Amino acid sequence: MAIQRPKGTQDHLPEGSPKLSLDNRAAAFHFVRETARRVLERAGAQRIDTPIFEEAELVKRGVGGSTDIVRKEMFTVYYFGDHGGYILRPEGTAGIVRAYLQNGLKQLPAPLKVWLTGPMFRAENVQKGRLRQFHQVDYEVLGSTDPLVDAEAISLLVDVVKALGLRSVKVKLGSIGDPPDRDAYNEYLRGLFSPVRERLSDDSKDRLERNPMRILDSKSEGDQQLIAELAVKPMLDFLGAEARAHFEQVQKYLRDWDVKFDIDPSIVRGLDYYRRTAWELHHEGVGAKSALCGGGRYDGLAEQLGGPAVPGIGWAFGVERLLLAMEAEGVELPVQEGPLLYVAALDEENVPYAASLAMSARSVARAEFAYRAMKPASAFRDAERRGAHLIALIGSNEVAQGTITLKNLVSGEQTLVETSDLVAFLAEQGKE
Ligand code: HAM
Hints:
Blueprint lengths: L25 H17 L3 E2 L5 E3 H8 L4 H5 L3 E2 L8 E3 L4 H10 L9 E10 L11 E10 L4 H17 L5 E7 L3 H15 L8 H9 L10 H9 L11 H16 L5 E2 L11 E9 L9 E5 L3 H4 L7 E7 H11 L11 E5 L5 H11 L5 E3 L6 H10 L4 E5 L1 H6 L1 E6 L5 E5 L3 H10 L1
Parallel strand pairs: 1-5, 7-8, 12-13, 12-14
Antiparallel strand pairs: 2-4, 3-4, 5-6, 6-11, 7-9, 9-10, 10-11, 14-15, 15-16
Helix pairs in contact: 1-5, 1-11, 2-4, 5-9
The structure holds histidyl-adenosine monophosphate.
Histidyl-adenosine monophosphate binds next to strand 6, strand 10, strand 11 and helix 11.
């Protein structure tokens, strides 16, 4: 058997490929990213790109030493003679904050809104919607603690999802509080779980020592059962006055703008950098455990990376998960346009001439040509398979007379144009 792609990765395939589904269709990825770009850039976000590999220390300090991502799912990058200290990025936020600090982006008008899209890497147990290389669209706002920014970020997420045609999504909103609130909650959890330590999974025994809150997002069924049995109080019960006021204000804005959300008191998120507002986006078609999107505020992250204080907030959705949700809802992609013009030569000697016509047409339109001489019937069949609107067949007469007959494949209408007028004619057609 020929070499296969690594487990947990996907190829993104061209239209018409066998075994095409929405989540491996290149055009679908393009549609999601392009839709997100339109919505986010209208709100003032600018594109940012950061390296796919970063210092391991960035991921450890950013995402947090007690998270599954850092403890079990990191892809380490080696090259000859290297210190082995690079990691394929598991998410975008830490890299964006690093880039902000390193490149002096503080000088730009605050708050700075940026967005990123690209592959992320986590060595997870592979299942539907859980890949080792997946793709995110990531939106981040740096330099403001205003709850208005939180509400706008959530509202923009909902706008993106609506623009994609999804209907059955739910925003689950919570708050992780400020660090002292979190300390108090961890203390409470330690007290609750310590007497039943033996019933916890090995991972969670470890979490009990390092960061008890991480037990709550354990993927072990036994742990989840225990959590239910103990009727664990939610993080929201532990919010201090300031975090609570911030949370109330975010909700007020969302209600004012009619952005729907449910309060989820138990949201803890799987990364350590969060503070205050945190949320997830869920969809019935993808399963209750798999969020389409996660986001929240991370006001302490820049300091954790060794920089000055820079408040921040953002979200990232998994493009593959979004596509699974779109598939579950039967959302249709806009039809991809084929070439406007297809040019085929009837004799081998005129193939290069036909090619040059198609290539000159590309200054104003999509155009393809046949790479070898064709009989009219096969040229028509090929043009139709490619979804062309116009076909031109080139014989020696056309070459000698400097004319070209364009046949509209939909209406059957034929137009004779001077070859020198072809570009102007196509430009006119393209406007309709
Ligand atoms: P996250 O919740 O770890 O947050 O990931 C965000 C989204 O990425 C998830 O909701 C999911 O759709 C997708 N995702 C995560 N892991 C996988 C996987 N193994 N396979 C497929 N899709 C996956 C973050 O990454 C944060 N950086 C979000 C953020 C931005 N917070 C603030 N700003």
